[in-house]
Amino acid sequence: MNTALEQIEKAARRAHLAVFGALHEGEDTIILLGPHEPGFWAHVEAEPEFHDGARDPLDRFSRRVITALARELIGTAVFPSDGPPYLPFIAWALASGRAWASPVGMLVHDTAGLFVSYRGALRLSGKVALPRQSANPCLECAKPCINACPVDALGAAAYDVAACRAHVRATDTAACRSIGCAARRICPLSQRYARLPEQSAFHMRAFLGE
C-alpha cells in the first residue's frame, strides 16, 4: 500500500472503518469504506446514534464519521443512500479490483467476503497511487454459498426477495434472522472477517422492515 493510502487507512481506523477499495474516476480518487473488524459493532453500539431513539442509527453514524473524515482529508463524503440518482457503488466496488460478483449474485470482497458492506466513500481530488488488484477468490473456492440458502432464493441470475423474506419470517431453519444469511456466513472469507452475529441480526431486521 502506498504512503497516501496508508494515511487514509490510518485515519479511517480511528472511526473503526477500513479502506475496502479504491479507484480513479476522471482526475479524482474514490475511496470505498467498510467496517473494520474485529470491533466495529461494539464501537458503533456505544455511539450516540444508537441511544437517541431515532431511526437508521447505523446510517446516521456512518454519515457523521465519514463526513468528518472527508473534512480531515480535504475531500467529499458520498453515500449509497444519496439520490436519486444513486451513486454507482456496485460499479465502483467492481472497478476497485477488490470485489466481484459471487456465484450467488451478491458482491464478494477480498476481506469481508459475502459480508461486504460499504458504509460510504470519499472522493478526493487527484489520483492517489493504487495497489495491485486482488485475484477473484471465488475462482478457486468450493463455492459452498451456492447450496447454503434453505429456499434457493439466491442465484447469479436473480434474487427471490419474497422467498427469502417468507423463510426468515416463518420457520427460518437456517437461523438467518438471528445470526445472518446462511449463504453469506458460509463463505470462507466471511468466516474470517469476524463480523458479530448481532450486526447481522441488525441488518436482517432492517431488511424485514422492523
Explain what you see.
- It is a single chain.
- With 210 residues, this protein is of the alpha+beta class.
- Helix content is 36%, strand content 15%.
- It has 9 helices and 6 strands, in the order αββααβαβββααααα.
- The strands form 2 sheets. Strands 1-2-6-3 form a 4-stranded antiparallel β-sheet, sandwiched between helices. The chain has a two-stranded antiparallel ribbon with strand order 4-5.
- The longest helix has 16 residues, at 57-72.
- The protein starts with a helix and ends with a helix.
- The mean pLDDT is 95.
Q: What's the arrangement of strands in the largest beta sheet?
A: 1-2-6-3
Distance between the termini: 41 Å
Query: How many runs of DSSP E, i.e. beta strands?
Result: 6
Nearest-angstrom radius of gyration? 17 Å
Briefly say what this structure is:
With 210 residues, the chain is of the alpha+beta class.
Task: Compile the SSE list and pairings.
Layout: H1 3-13, E1 17-25, E2 28-35, H2 40-45, H3 57-72, E3 76-78, H4 89-95, E4 99-101, E5 107-109, E6 120-125, H5 161-169, H6 176-179, H7 182-186, H8 188-193, H9 197-208
Antiparallel strand pairs: 1-2, 2-6, 3-6, 4-5
Features:
alpha+beta, 36% helix, 210 residues
